[in-house]
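Section 5: illustrative case.
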């Protein structure tokens, strides 16, 4: 098939003439629509550099049309620099095949790399090939069929209600409201760092998450996903801590900042909390683990999965179910009990049916 736009021929081989004719017909339509182009001679190194520059400038965006977060771009750039480009950088993008990527993944597994690290290594290649397919530079993405190692879930540290309360009262008073917001509202670390008093309405009992702090970029960024911008209910226990904190600190600007405009340093907050808990003989908990605790408390209180997903800022309810489904009421034995109760109410007895 000849592409007059590029002045080049596009070739493919088939075992049967009928298959070749069918492809040529489809290819002619695709060429006219600008959906198919001859394989590019550009290398993976060239394409990766162009993609990173475009993503950083905001001209290349995610599938949802949003810009890439600085933290995501840092991860992609590190994966490309450390493993992808040394392996494939000098090869043409169009020459990379599924078997090449599978051999690469299998070797990383044999070297003992963590499953999540291997998956993250493939992520920049996925987005680069996805863009190349849309631009007609390659026919299909070789990343689609790669078999990746399974990421084993790590046991989550969760505090029960009594332990959470004890952890809070054991902290220095200036730090209690921050940790209470982590435990009772489930905000991410960057969201806690960016939270302003203007985002907290104690009268209506609603906390608004609208942004996050990126420590490495030293800048405020949008929440992790579109669902990250959300309203979170303020429980009475949290309201008490926030009320006290507002009276004892600056009532404007950042709620937990070193001052009105400077976010707290996470390592400093952790060091103080760890010292206080260790001194009392308590098991320390991290800010991210406090977020897991919030989810578990909401589940124990009987809040439905859809609402929990919204309060957590998850991009889909499936993420909530995957992470916390084992904690949901009605799990396993309880599910059978609930079903029995339904059947007892709804199904006539054997005697009444004359059996």
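Designed sequence:
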């Amino acid at each position: 098939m000849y592409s007059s736009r590029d002045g080049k021929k596009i070739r493919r081989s088939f075992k049967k003439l009928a298959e070749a004719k069918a492809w040529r017909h489809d290819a002619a339509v695709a060429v006219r629509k600008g959906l198919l182009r001859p394989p590019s001679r550009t290398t993976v190194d060239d394409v990766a550099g162009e993609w990173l520059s475009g993503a950083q400038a905001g001209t290349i965006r995610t599938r949802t049309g949003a810009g890439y977060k600085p933290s995501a771009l840092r991860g992609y750039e590190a994966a490309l620099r450390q493993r992808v480009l040394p392996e494939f950088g000098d090869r043409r993008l169009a020459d990379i095949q599924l078997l090449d990527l599978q051999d690469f993944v299998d070797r990383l597994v044999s070297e003992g790399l963590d499953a999540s690290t291997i998956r993250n290594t493939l992520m920049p290649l996925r987005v680069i090939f996805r863009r190349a397919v849309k631009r007609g530079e390659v026919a299909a993405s070789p990343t689609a069929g790669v078999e990746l190692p399974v990421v084993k879930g790590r046991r989550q540290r969760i505090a029960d209600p009594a332990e959470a309360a004890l952890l809070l009262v054991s902290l220095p008073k200036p730090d209690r409201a921050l940790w209470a917001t982590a435990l009772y509202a489930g905000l991410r670390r960057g969201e806690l760092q960016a939270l302003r008093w203007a985002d907290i309405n104690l009268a209506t009992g609603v906390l608004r998450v609208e942004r996050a702090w990126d420590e490495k970029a030293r800048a405020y960024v949008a929440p992790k996903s579109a669902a990250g911008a959300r309203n979170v209910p303020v429980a009475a226990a949290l309201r008490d801590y926030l009320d006290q904190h507002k009276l004892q600190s600056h009532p404007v600007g950042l709620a937990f900042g070193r001052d009105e405009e400077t976010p707290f340093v996470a390592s400093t907050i952790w060091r103080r909390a760890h010292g206080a808990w260790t001194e009392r003989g308590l098991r320390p908990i991290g800010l991210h683990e406090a977020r897991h605790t919030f989810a578990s408390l909401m589940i124990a209180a009987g809040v439905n999965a859809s609402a929990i997903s919204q309060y957590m800022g998850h991009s889909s309810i499936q993420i909530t179910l995957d992470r916390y489904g084992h904690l949901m009421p009605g799990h396993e034995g309880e599910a059978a009990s609930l079903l029995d109760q339904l059947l007892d109410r709804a199904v006539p007895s054997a005697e009444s049916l004359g059996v």
